């Protein structure tokens, strides 16, 4: 069955860093409104805005203190309504971020739960008695330290999978679930097109809350299998869909770490919980786990390719996927995936872009990816804002790494790499704001920025525009959106190639994801897009130059 959301190209905005309309150093909703013409020119059809709700902002909005109000730093609910209307006039839909695994500790529910132990709100969260005078168990939080925080003046702890200012909501409580559903429906009634759903696989906890053997010097354990995608989550997610999304013609994109390929059917199959999910298995190729940055892997292009293909094949069997190479939790793709630093530029950027844009699924682009933004290496830990960067820095050192090594891990992986202000032009603060931004601008903004790429036909920005318009409006549209994908395994190791098969044509993507010259046998074809000026074809064998990438049609 075809669905409208399969046709979208989605642009992710980190509102704090996108565009500051009132010059206070913090991006805002009206800043997004100002840039709608830019987004329309880029060709995207939907925007996902990271959380803009009332929040103390310790995790930049992933800590919500009022789900039905806007953080004044970002504007007002009227600004958002105007944005929704104006975007619609340009053919752009808006989805918001739904963060319901936890709230902020400043949410009135939690405040009431603390103040009044006999109130019903106690059971909206997860409170547990100490175990022999210590926290209830030894589980480690994703942002560091124990998942348990002691309540002041009481012999009791509350659970937080993330920071201690992000207490987990207790989905076992039906009344809490109903409050969440009515909040979701309230937003959908406002005319948003749907939600990206944060950390949703964490909402079911193993109810025995038992300790496990420690895996670090802190005597704690990263125990995702106790808190992620647990048996019983299915009832919660079915009910969630039934009571909310199913009543609307909306799109839902689940952030679903911990879901194995065999379980994709439950999540995105015909009767699945969501329209699509993000698969992190290939995105986290450089580390053993997304939260332990000092456990780095020695990955190869072939491993990356195999994971990517496995993911595509598993998704194709049952449903639809959300394809991405960057987001607000990942480093910049060029810095992470382009191994040769001298190609962390137009060539590396365009090779990655072409490689993922034509996979089967809905492509997501993260702000700045389209101009080839790179990581921003910092000298001191004080320059970081992200709580998980600070935690990883100190944890690396407690595990025996030196200060320099710890800083290096954080520079490679910090979530601040993609959170630096958007680089619009060469003016002070990169045109993001006239006031010093909340987070330092990447020093390369005079080289990498939107203004300098706008009118340059050879720029990465214009290459992205071409890729997106080819997917949206060319004669190959149907094949590129709905066609089957068949990976090509039989190539040299650094080549990523796949077919997209439509009813009347077969297209092929070929990408040399390395700086070594290589070659590939190929049948007769017509070129559609190439990131070099021409394709070097010598009677059935093409020569692939460093990071050369193409979309061709087989004759
Ligand atoms: C990834 C989220 C991340 C949030 C976290 C807590 O897991 O996108 O940015 O910090 O989920 O809400």
Distance between the termini: 28 Å
Rounded mean pLDDT score: 97
Global geometry: globular
Bound molecules: D-glucose
> Which sequence of strands runs across the widest sheet?
1-2-5-9-10-11-14-15
Using the coordinates above, name the CATH class of one domain: Alpha Beta
Structural class from helices and strands? alpha/beta
Biggest β-sheet: count, sense, barrel?
8 strands, parallel, barrel
Task: Report the portion of residues in β strands.
Answer: 15-25%
Give the oligomeric state: single chain
CATH architecture annotation of one domain: Alpha-Beta Barrel
Q: In the CATH scheme, what's the topology name of one domain? A: TIM Barrel
Report on this model:
This protein is α/β, with parallel strands linked by helices. Among the domains are: 7-98 and 321-378 and 416-473, TIM Barrel (Alpha-Beta Barrel), CATH 3.20.20.80; 108-159, Oligo-1,6-glucosidase, Domain 2 (Oligo-1,6-glucosidase, domain 2, Alpha-Beta Complex), CATH 3.90.400.10; 379-413, no CATH class; 482-554, Immunoglobulin-like (Sandwich), CATH 2.60.40.1180. It has 16 helices and 23 strands. It has helices at 29-34, 36-42, 77-89, 108-115, 174-189, 224-227, 233-243, 264-268, 301-318, 333-337, 346-357, 387-398, 403-413, 450-454, 460-473, 477-482; strands at 10-13, 46-49, 53-54, 66-70, 93-98, 127-128, 148-150, 157-159, 194-197, 251-255, 276-278, 287-289, 292-296, 321-323, 362-366, 484-488, 495-501, 506-512, 518-521, 525-530, 536-538, 541-544, 549-554. The strands form 6 sheets. The protein has an 8-stranded parallel beta barrel with strand order 1-2-5-9-10-11-14-15. The protein has a 5-stranded antiparallel β-sheet with strand order 16-17-18-23-20. A 3-stranded antiparallel β-sheet has the order 6-8-7, with no helix packed on it. A hairpin with a 6-residue loop joins β16 (484-488) and β17. α11 (346-357) runs parallel beside α15 (460-473) and α12 (387-398) packs antiparallel against α13. The two termini are 28 Å apart. The mean pLDDT is 97. D-glucose is lined by residues 59, 62, 99, 162, 198-199, 255, 328-329.
């Amino acid at each position: 069955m075809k669905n409208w959301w399969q046709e979208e190209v989605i642009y992710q905005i980190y509102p704090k860093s996108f565009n500051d309309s009132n010059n206070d150093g913090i991006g805002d909703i009206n800043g997004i409104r100002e840039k709608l013409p830019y987004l329309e020119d880029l060709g995207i059809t939907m925007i996902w805005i990271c959380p803009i709700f009332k929040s103390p902002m310790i995790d930049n909005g992933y800590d919500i203190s009022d789900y039905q109000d806007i953080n004044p730093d970002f504007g007002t609910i009227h600004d958002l309504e105007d944005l929704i209307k104006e975007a619609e006039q340009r053919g752009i839909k808006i989805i918001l971020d739904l963060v319901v695994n936890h709230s902020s500790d400043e949410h009135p529910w939690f405040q009431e739960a603390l103040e009044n132990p006999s109130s019903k709100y106690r059971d909206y969260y997860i409170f547990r008695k100490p175990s022999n005078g210590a926290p209830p168990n030894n589980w480690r939080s994703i942002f560091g330290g124990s998942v348990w925080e002691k309540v002041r003046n009481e012999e009791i702890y509350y659970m937080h999978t993330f920071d201690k200012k992000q207490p987990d909501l207790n989905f076992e409580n039906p009344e809490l679930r109903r409050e969440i559903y009515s909040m979701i429906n309230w937003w959908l009634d406002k005319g948003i097109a749907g939600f990206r759903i944060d950390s949703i696989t964490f909402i079911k906890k193993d109810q025995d809350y038992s300790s496990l053997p420690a895996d670090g010097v802190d005597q704690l354990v990263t125990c995702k299998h106790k808190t992620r995608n647990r048996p019983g989550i299915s009832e919660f997610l079915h009910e969630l869909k039934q009571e909310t999304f199913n009543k609307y013609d909306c799109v839902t994109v689940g952030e679903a770490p911990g879901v194995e390929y065999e379980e994709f059917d439950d999540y995105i199959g015909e009767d699945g919980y969501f329209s699509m999910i993000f698969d992190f298995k290939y995105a986290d190729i450089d580390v053993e786990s997304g939260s332990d940055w000092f456990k780095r892997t020695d990955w190869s292009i072939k491993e990356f390719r195999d994971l990517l293909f496995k993911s595509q094949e598993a998704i194709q069997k049952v449903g639809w996927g959300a394809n991405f190479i960057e987001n607000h939790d990942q480093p910049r793709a060029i810095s992470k995936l382009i191994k040769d630093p001298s190609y962390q530029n137009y060539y590396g950027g365009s090779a990655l872009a072409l490689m993922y844009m034509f996979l089967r699924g809905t492509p997501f682009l993260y702000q700045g990816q389209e101009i080839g933004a790179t990581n921003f290496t910092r000298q001191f830990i004080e320059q970081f804002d992200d709580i998980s960067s600070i935690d990883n820095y100190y944890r690396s050192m407690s595990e025996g790494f030196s200060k320099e090594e710890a800083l290096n891990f954080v520079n490679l992986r910090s979530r601040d790499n993609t959170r630096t202000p958007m680089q619009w032009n060469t003016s002070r603060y990169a045109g993001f704001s006239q006031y010093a931004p909340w987070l330092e601008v990447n020093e390369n903004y005079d080289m990498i920025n939107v203004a300098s790429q706008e009118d340059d036909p050879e720029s990465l920005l214009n290459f992205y525009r071409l890729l997106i318009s080819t997917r949206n409006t060319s004669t190959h549209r149907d094949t590129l959106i709905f066609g089957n994908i068949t990976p090509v395994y039989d190539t040299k190791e650094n080549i990523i190639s796949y077919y997209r098969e439509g009813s009347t044509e077969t297209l092929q993507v070929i990408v040399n994801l390395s700086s070594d010259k290589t070659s590939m046998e190929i049948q007769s074809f017509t070129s559609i897009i190439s990131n070099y000026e021409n394709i070097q074809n010598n009677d059935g064998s093409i020569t692939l130059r460093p990071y050369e990438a193409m979309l061709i049609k087989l004759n």
